[in-house]
Amino acid sequence: MTIHQEVKIPASPDAIFGILTTSDKFTAMTGGRSADIAAEEGGAFSLFGGDIRGRHIELVPGKRVVQAWRSNAWPEGVYSIVSFVLSIDGSETKLQFSQSGYPDGAQEMLEGGGHKCIGSP
Protein backbone atom coordinates (compact mmCIF):
# COMPACT_ATOMS: atom_id res chain seq x y z
CA MET A 1 0.00 0.00 0.00
CA THR A 2 1.13 3.49 -0.79
CA ILE A 3 -0.15 6.89 0.24
CA HIS A 4 0.14 9.55 -2.45
CA GLN A 5 -0.87 13.18 -1.97
CA GLU A 6 -0.28 16.31 -4.01
CA VAL A 7 -0.64 19.94 -2.98
CA LYS A 8 0.28 23.29 -4.48
CA ILE A 9 2.06 25.66 -2.13
CA PRO A 10 2.66 29.39 -2.69
CA ALA A 11 6.40 29.15 -2.00
CA SER A 12 9.51 28.25 -3.96
CA PRO A 13 10.86 24.68 -4.11
CA ASP A 14 13.99 25.90 -2.30
CA ALA A 15 11.90 27.35 0.53
CA ILE A 16 9.94 24.11 0.92
CA PHE A 17 13.13 22.04 0.78
CA GLY A 18 14.48 24.27 3.56
CA ILE A 19 11.42 23.61 5.71
CA LEU A 20 11.76 19.86 5.24
CA THR A 21 15.46 19.84 6.12
CA THR A 22 15.88 22.50 8.83
CA SER A 23 14.95 21.86 12.47
CA ASP A 24 13.67 25.32 13.40
CA LYS A 25 11.72 25.83 10.14
CA PHE A 26 10.05 22.41 10.42
CA THR A 27 9.22 23.07 14.08
CA ALA A 28 7.61 26.41 13.14
CA MET A 29 5.63 24.81 10.29
CA THR A 30 4.17 22.19 12.63
CA GLY A 31 3.07 24.72 15.22
CA GLY A 32 5.93 24.20 17.63
CA ARG A 33 6.23 20.40 17.75
CA SER A 34 9.98 19.99 18.01
CA ALA A 35 12.17 18.68 15.21
CA ASP A 36 15.84 17.78 15.17
CA ILE A 37 16.97 17.36 11.56
CA ALA A 38 20.50 16.59 10.33
CA ALA A 39 21.45 18.44 7.15
CA GLU A 40 23.18 15.63 5.21
CA GLU A 41 22.23 12.41 3.42
CA GLY A 42 22.38 9.52 5.87
CA GLY A 43 21.75 11.94 8.74
CA ALA A 44 19.17 11.21 11.41
CA PHE A 45 16.06 13.21 12.19
CA SER A 46 13.35 13.33 14.82
CA LEU A 47 10.00 14.99 14.02
CA PHE A 48 6.80 15.96 15.82
CA GLY A 49 8.33 15.94 19.28
CA GLY A 50 10.04 12.60 18.68
CA ASP A 51 6.95 10.71 17.45
CA ILE A 52 8.68 10.08 14.09
CA ARG A 53 12.36 9.16 13.71
CA GLY A 54 14.44 8.18 10.74
CA ARG A 55 17.26 8.93 8.30
CA HIS A 56 17.65 10.88 5.10
CA ILE A 57 18.16 8.58 2.12
CA GLU A 58 18.42 11.24 -0.58
CA LEU A 59 18.52 15.04 -0.46
CA VAL A 60 18.41 16.97 -3.76
CA PRO A 61 18.06 20.68 -2.90
CA GLY A 62 14.91 22.24 -4.30
CA LYS A 63 13.84 18.96 -5.93
CA ARG A 64 13.54 15.91 -3.70
CA VAL A 65 13.74 14.55 -0.15
CA VAL A 66 13.59 10.78 0.43
CA GLN A 67 13.57 9.45 3.98
CA ALA A 68 13.17 6.25 5.99
CA TRP A 69 10.53 7.00 8.66
CA ARG A 70 9.37 5.06 11.68
CA SER A 71 6.71 5.86 14.22
CA ASN A 72 7.39 5.13 17.87
CA ALA A 73 4.06 3.26 17.81
CA TRP A 74 5.27 0.73 15.20
CA PRO A 75 6.98 -2.58 15.93
CA GLU A 76 10.75 -2.37 16.37
CA GLY A 77 12.65 -2.26 13.08
CA VAL A 78 9.67 -1.26 10.91
CA TYR A 79 10.35 1.72 8.61
CA SER A 80 8.41 3.27 5.77
CA ILE A 81 9.89 5.13 2.81
CA VAL A 82 8.69 8.72 2.41
CA SER A 83 9.40 10.98 -0.55
CA PHE A 84 8.72 14.64 -1.18
CA VAL A 85 9.10 15.65 -4.85
CA LEU A 86 9.08 19.39 -5.55
CA SER A 87 8.39 21.02 -8.92
CA ILE A 88 7.47 24.46 -10.21
CA ASP A 89 3.82 24.84 -11.21
CA GLY A 90 3.24 28.39 -12.41
CA SER A 91 3.92 30.69 -9.48
CA GLU A 92 3.60 27.85 -6.96
CA THR A 93 5.37 24.62 -6.06
CA LYS A 94 3.69 21.29 -6.57
CA LEU A 95 4.65 18.97 -3.72
CA GLN A 96 4.10 15.27 -4.36
CA PHE A 97 4.22 13.22 -1.17
CA SER A 98 4.30 9.43 -1.11
CA GLN A 99 4.78 6.91 1.67
CA SER A 100 5.04 3.13 1.40
CA GLY A 101 6.05 0.21 3.59
CA TYR A 102 4.08 1.19 6.68
CA PRO A 103 2.40 -1.43 8.90
CA ASP A 104 -1.15 -2.67 8.36
CA GLY A 105 -3.69 -0.42 10.06
CA ALA A 106 -1.54 2.75 9.85
CA GLN A 107 -2.84 4.18 6.57
CA GLU A 108 -5.79 6.21 7.91
CA MET A 109 -3.69 7.94 10.57
CA LEU A 110 -0.84 8.62 8.13
CA GLU A 111 -3.11 10.03 5.41
CA GLY A 112 -4.67 12.53 7.80
CA GLY A 113 -1.37 13.67 9.31
CA GLY A 114 0.47 13.93 6.00
CA HIS A 115 -2.14 16.16 4.41
CA LYS A 116 -2.19 18.52 7.38
CA CYS A 117 1.60 18.74 7.39
CA ILE A 118 2.28 19.23 3.69
CA GLY A 119 -0.63 21.57 3.14
CA SER A 120 0.54 24.32 5.46
CA PRO A 121 4.22 25.30 5.30
TrEMBL record:
Domain Activator of Hsp90 ATPase homologue 1/2-like C-terminal: 11-116
UniProt similarity note: Belongs to the AHA1 family.
Protein name: SRPBCC domain-containing protein
Species of the source: Devosia algicola
Lineage: Bacteria, Pseudomonadati, Pseudomonadota, Alphaproteobacteria, Hyphomicrobiales
